[in-house]
Amino acid sequence: MKPSLVPILLLLGLSALPVSAEIQSGELAGYLFGPAENVPEEFNGGFSLYAAAWPLVATYPGHDFQTGLCGTWMFPQYEPGKEPAKKFYTDVEGGLGWWRDTHFPTTTPKFIMGGVGPEFSFIANGPGYGAGDWQNPRGLYGVAQLSPWLLFPLDGLNLKQGTSGELFGYGYLPLPLTNPKATTAGKPVPTGNHCWTLFLNTANFKGPATFFTPFFWSQATLEHPEWAGMLLDSRPAGPNKAIQMETQHIPAILARDAAGKKFARIAPTSFPVGADGASTVLHRLTAYKRGALWDGVQKWFDGGPPVDGAIRAEAAAVHTFRAGGGSSWSIRPPGAKEGDEVPLPWQAFATSFTPNPITFGYQWNQQLTRSAGSLVTLPEYYALGTAGKKPQWKVQSPAEVPAQTGLAPYRFATPKEAAQEPRTTPDDPKSCWKQPGPAAGPFTAKLGDGSVVTYYWYRFADQPAMLNADLSPEERRQVQQRVEKLHRTWTKDRQYLTPPDVGTLASIDPALILTPPKGLEIGYVPIATRQELAR
User: Fold this and answer.
1) Cα dist from 361 to 249, 327, 351, 488, whole Å
2) Is residue 479 part of a domain?
3) In terms of C-beta density within 10 A (0-12 exposed, 13-18 middle, 19 or more buried), how is residue 172 classed?
4) What's residue 7's pLDDT?
5) Is the CB of residue 138 less than 8 Å from the CB of residue 456?
6) CB of 450 within 8 A of CB of 533?
């Protein structure tokens, strides 16, 4: 944990305050839970949802800040009795949020894909963005760019600055872009052809954007052949997923009064609020049968008629939400061990509700929260009390917190941190980034987060992720032909996911919406090669 904040307070000119004990740094962390009803297990061909996007904290609190907004975890599905002999962890768990490794953060969330190989051996967050480094790329080549109209930065996908409560639609469905393989990297273990594809539905971009290459999953079987056939390259996805908001760190400070009573304050933390005073955080969580797109696309690739990309409604099941939900959000003191955290009195000021069966949100105690514009801010001050025999924080008004604690004058400000280094890709002329190399570029895009992305246009099959996807030249030629069919037919302005019934759609940073250069409209994709702070 961080050291005492007393030196910081002295620097802020607050030394005259009567402080009975040290102010210490802590954090607010835990989960919020959404109670979704199950759907039949046959809806195992992916999912989609609409998640509200908003500035959770008023001021960016530095790179210790890490939290997601409402989202889910997509795990492989196994037939009863055919589960792995020894359990292991692998899934897709990305979404909207802020992460410690984000280089260019703002209070507006970003989106990452969050593919996790077995036991976190590989992690892929987007094209050129994942675990490891370029000498040991443990996921950096795991995601291929599919859309010719959307640039996916190396630091995650930016939303338009100022987004506050709009709905960001996304989900994953498998597409048969490749064929199954009997061998993987020359070894006698198979690789499936589930290309789990990110579909987006936003105000300025709709449709397939990127996908996890099957080899991203199956490469783990080179050292663990017992995992063959157990990963998302070949397995369907379990349809009944946890809906949660995972928070790892929101800043908090703690102190005692002269009598030794404990008080705490959290950084101003907000939720989106509508005209009715309530918050919608998740909408239209949907599970699909694989045939929602797969069957028609496979026939198309085999010579049949084109399909328009709209997901078949009869192959979809929309989850409903029941009453309930809960919170494990807790304020943790410095050096907290498991069990030391004390829960926030969430139900004192927040009530889960479903304004309709497919929407989940919160209603707020107007005496304990404060609303301004599109946001409602949670109570900031707490005193340590009990709930039954267990400790629990109790909401306090600012006037109820003794001045001697020094909590009220403290300002949660963005700390001074070293400028983030650029995100880069290999510049070796013999690397897969240069051989065969791009067809056009460089180009630049200046983003709302203050960064500049340098990118090039690559032939789809020549992008680095495809050159590292364990595909032969003939296999890459075939997938190139299939992607060209998609580029001709699946444009960025037609409907793929069913639109939301409530709210308005969020927008992606407009600088990321591209028009391909003349002659490169079909079969070429933009690939980010560098991202740095604007000078």
Assistant:
1) 22, 13, 8, 39
2) no
3) buried
4) 34
5) no
6) yes
